[in-house]
């Protein structure tokens, strides 16, 4: 290996600068932000409120409904309505 | 342990997932990784792919680095593997088209630049035609200035094998570049 060839290889194979866009290609993704504590407590509260509303609605509907007519009363009404 | 204090701290921070430490490590090694990739592949797009793959792999497995060997060796080994994998995946047809397009784009009054580029291309073409093993030894020797011992550690072979590969590469390059005159080497 001649000195000239050593020189050629050293010059032509010199280190090059990496393009700036490389960092954009390899940048590690940001860690996801931890969810605030408020958000964690809001879910059980919302669920509880929904259950209370559902139970309350069912209770009021059941309390306010007229009693169902008995069978023989219905039969008399349907047979003798024209009398 | 071969790590210096500050570098060890940066690596430990990376192992904890510190993004700033990743950036510092990237800035420290980006030119070395990209240079090996570029001098081996001879193509900027391929070098960018290889460098990207190397850093993504590095950040993914840095927790596995225990400091038993030099971090330089570890990262060189990684980029060498990425180069060889990349070469296996795609056979490169781009340089010919690149050279053609560069010639078409060059203005007529830039004759010197074209001549220099032509001489660069000859050297590059001679290196490109070396087998992957010889080419990688040449790149690690002349781009990174590694010793035979370091090259042997990176490539996982003996120093004798490194010497033999470099000797064969030198002979081939001497023959292929014999037409370059004395002044041509330093344009």
How many strand elements of chain B? 0
Query: What fraction of the residues of chain A are assigned to beta strands by DSSP?
Result: under 5%
Order of helices and strands of chain A: HHHH
Helix content of chain B: over 70%
Quaternary structure annotation: heterodimer
* Radius of gyration over C-alpha positions of chain B, nearest whole angstrom: 19 Å
Strand-residue fraction of chain B?
A: under 5%
SSE ordering of chain B: HHHHHHHHH
CATH homologous superfamily caption of the largest domain in chain B: RNA polymerase sigma factor, region 2, helix turn helix motif
Sheet having the most strands of chain B: none
Report the mean per-residue pLDDT of chain A as an integer.
78
Q: Percent helix among the residues of chain A?
A: 55-70%
| CATH-defined architecture of the largest domain in chain B | Orthogonal Bundle
Q: What is the average of the pLDDT values of chain B?
A: 83
Task: Decide which structural class fits the backbone of chain B.
Answer: mainly alpha
What's the total count of β strands of chain A? 0
């Amino acid at each position: 290996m001649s000195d000239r060839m050593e020189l050629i290889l050293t010059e032509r194979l010199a280190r090059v600068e990496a393009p700036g866009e490389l960092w954009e290609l390899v940048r590690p993704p940001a860690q996801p932000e931890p969810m605030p504590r408020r958000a964690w407590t809001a879910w059980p509260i919302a669920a509880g409120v929904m259950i209370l509303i559902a139970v309350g609605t069912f209770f009021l509907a059941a309390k306010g409904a007229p009693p169902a007519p008995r069978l023989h009363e219905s039969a008399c009404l349907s047979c003798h309505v024209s009398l | 342990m071969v790590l210096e204090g500050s570098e060890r701290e940066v690596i430990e921070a990376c192992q904890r997932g510190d993004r700033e430490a990743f950036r510092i490590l990237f800035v420290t090694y980006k030119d070395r990784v990209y240079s090996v990739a570029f001098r081996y592949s001879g193509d900027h797009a391929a070098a960018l792919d290889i460098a990207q793959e190397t850093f993504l792999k590095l950040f993914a497995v840095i927790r596995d680095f225990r400091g038993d060997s030099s971090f330089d060796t570890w990262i060189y080994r990684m980029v060498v593997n990425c180069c060889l994998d990349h070469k296996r995946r795609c056979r490169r047809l781009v340089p010919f088209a690149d050279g053609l397009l560069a010639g078409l784009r060059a203005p007529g009054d830039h004759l010197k630049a074209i001549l220099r580029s032509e001489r660069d291309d000859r050297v590059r073409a001679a290196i490109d035609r070396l087998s992957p093993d010889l080419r990688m030894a040449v790149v690690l020797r002349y781009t990174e200035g590694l010793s035979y011992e370091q090259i042997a550690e990176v490539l996982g072979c003996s120093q004798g094998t490194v010497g033999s590969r470099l000797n064969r590469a030198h002979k081939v390059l001497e023959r292929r570049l014999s037409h370059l005159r004395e002044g041509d080497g330093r344009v």
